Prior knowledge:
Blueprint: E1 8-13, E2 17-23, E3 31-38, H1 48-68, E4 75-80, H2 84-94, E5 102-105, H3 113-124
Parallel strand pairs: 1-4, 4-5
Antiparallel strand pairs: 1-2, 2-3
Amino acid sequence: MSQKHNKQYAVWMDTHQATIVGREHIDNGDFQIIGTVKNPGAAKNSNENASNNQEIALTQKYFKDITAKMPNIDEIHITGTGQIQEQFMKYLAESPQYKNAICTESTTNKISDDQLVNLVTKHFH
């Protein structure tokens, strides 16, 4: 009997960079790095309100850029530093195409790509 894998992904993220891991052939094969996304952050602005609005818009763009690399998520594991993972999980839960995805999270410091792939492989097996 062949083993059916769900469309499983993982993201290591902080507020400025995300590394996305997925399977070689979307729903089967070994896990590998499938992309990275950068968030430059808001430019310095003397108007606090304008700066906050820019930060919110850039964060939304950051999340959209990440999800663009992960079509049809069944399961996702989000790891990294800070509170950005919680914001990303909320974004996924509020997005119609991702609201039924199974989301798990953990906290890790910056790790190498190989360590991330190993962590994801262990998590989903």
